[in-house]
Specification:
It is built from 7 helices and 15 strands. By secondary structure, it is α+β, with helices and mostly antiparallel strands. It folds into 2 domains: about 5-140, 2-Layer Sandwich (Fructose-1,6-Bisphosphatase, Chain A, domain 1); about 150-260, D-Maltodextrin-Binding Protein, domain 2 (3-Layer(aba) Sandwich). The chain starts with a helix and ends with a helix.
């Protein structure tokens, strides 16, 4: 019988193995290429990490489908089970030796994310969640902050790879920075979401994301007691292009600022 506990066990094992590989090859990248633009990098490490994760999943769940950043869709969707994988979120950071990147693995049943893990190999931090069971950092339960005003909030964002798509977020950045206590731009959406869940950030928004960026992280935020939506407060799913994740207390205020 398939259980979320077994899924999470496999996801943690795969993420840990891939994370250790990534960390071990930091500074040893053999090949860097570009996808959508000069800022959208992919390395040989991304690809090898993804191969390791997919292999580990397929050993246990050969009939499940895969949606991964580098390899796209694979396997039959008849089972209704899909793994959504970002083998190295924060590739630009990684390529420059900036220590903020992770492995993200989400698990969906009929399109709904039921489990997810995000592993930061630099800090050896494994964030995880299963639907209706809470969110965890390693073995400890985590929860969002109680900050109730944007004025007292630490907010994070990210910017699209394509330069022409950055202007819209620059305007949103201008609005938020005039209201919030501070803004950070760490560069790995999956980890940004986990930092909201763990109470290190009060909120996070970003535009032009892909399913593998948020599949695991958005569940972790919700299971930590936070709220996730589109930036206009409409319902969120991983195939939407923008996201707003907060502790819940500042969500309406953030929507108001972003939508004004």
């Amino acid at each position: 019988m398939l259980t979320t506990e077994k899924v999470t066990e496999v996801a943690i094992s795969a993420a840990k193995e891939a994370g250790e590989y990534i960390l071990g090859h930091m500074g040893k990248i053999k090949k860097i290429s570009h996808k959508s633009g000069i800022n959208d990098l992919v390395t040989d490490v991304d690809k090898s990490s993804e191969e390791m994760i997919v292999k580990r999943i397929k050993e246990t769940f050969p009939d499940h489908s895969i949606l991964a950043e580098e390899g796209g869709k694979s396997g039959s969707e008849k089972s209704g089970f899909t793994w959504v994988i970002d083998p190295l979120d924060g590739t630009v950071n990684y390529a420059h030796g900036f220590p903020f990147f992770c492995v993200s693995i989400g698990f969906a049943v009929e399109g709904e994310i039921k489990a997810g893990v995000v592993y930061d190999p630099v800090r050896d931090e494994m964030f995880s969640a299963e639907s209706l069971k809470g969110a965890f950092l390693n073995d400890g339960k985590i929860s969002v902050t109680g900050t109730d005003k944007v004025q007292r909030a630490l907010i994070a964002t990210g910017f699209p790879y394509l330069t022409e798509n950055r202007e819209a977020n620059l305007e949103l950045f201008r609005r938020i920075i005039s209201k919030a206590q501070a803004i950070r731009r760490p560069g790995a959406a999956a980890l940004d979401l986990c930092y909201v869940a763990a109470g290190r950030l009060d909120g996070f928004w970003e535009l032009n994301l892909s399913p593998w960026d948020t599949a695991a992280g958005h569940l972790i935020v919700k299971e930590a007691g936070g709220k996730v939506s589109m930036t206009d407060n409409s319902p969120y799913d991983i195939f939407k292009k923008n996201i707003l994740a907060t502790n819940g207390h500042i969500h309406e205020e953030m929507v108001s600022i972003l939508s004004s």
